[in-house]
Design a protein that fits this description.
The chain is mainly alpha-helical. It has helices spanning 14-27, 29-50, 63-95, 102-106, 110-147, 149-152, 157-188, 192-198, 203-214, 218-237, 243-264, and strands spanning 5-6, 9-10, 54-55, 58-59. The strands form two sheets. It has a two-stranded antiparallel sheet with strand order 1-2. A two-stranded antiparallel ribbon has the order 3-4. The longest helix is centred in the middle third of the chain and has 38 residues, at 110-147. It comes from Cyanobium gracile UHCC 0281. This is Integral membrane protein.
Length: 277
Amino acid sequence: MHASVGRHGPRLDFGDALQEGWRAFSRSPGPFVGFPLVVVALQFLIQPLQSQISNGGVASSDPLDWILYLIGLTANLLLNLWCAIGLVRGAGSAIQGGHPSLGQLMRWDGEVFGRLLRAWLLLAAVVLVPLIGLLLLVGGPLALLGFYADQLVPFSRTLVEVLGLSLAVVFALLLGVLLLGVIYLAINQSFLTQIVLFERAGSRTALQRGRSLVDPSWLMVLLLMLIAGLLMLLGLLACLVGAFVAWPLVVCIATAAYRQLVLASGDADPLPPHPSP
């Protein structure tokens, strides 16, 4: 491992992370590919619940269809979180030299699941609260101005146009700032699942830990995430079958990068040691 600690904090060597992630995936490719297959199969079984709200492009008016849709949506979220925890757990074991089985990946851990769910909900709130505030404080008046423009024109067309243009510019600028904030958060929370699982951190602590861990190497983590996204895209293009390889591989790479950053910052190895045979 070539990561080092400098005066600006730890730096990520994504080349090492890619190699270590690939080695980890190679230790148990069958279980790593099999678990996402199981999850996708379960999601396919509940898909009819979510298809009830639309018939030929027309939204259903039956409340029961919407209840079933919400149940299906919730089930999909739970399955995705279950898969994320299992893959990260398996990646940590494989990086430490283990050969995780499908049963180990599928093992349910309600405590970790609850912490991860709360962390993701908190992260969603961090994004949604300013977005809703922007829509209410700027988007609302802009929409009302556009709706009642014809009634206001007799007073002063120039005033209406200037006010509308000013609101539109402010809205665009603030939306752009918010988008940059979302991108920043998306990168510095790249290891949220790893932090929750291996450091047993609560939701607020996990978000703060993600920021302190990633910020010194933010650009390198951004590059790593772009490479991971490219791997996922290539997997999807390979008749979708490759996605079941790319998905766990990306998780192994991300977990290797997370471990590298933790060790480079001077903290103890966060991954549990693999028991000796």
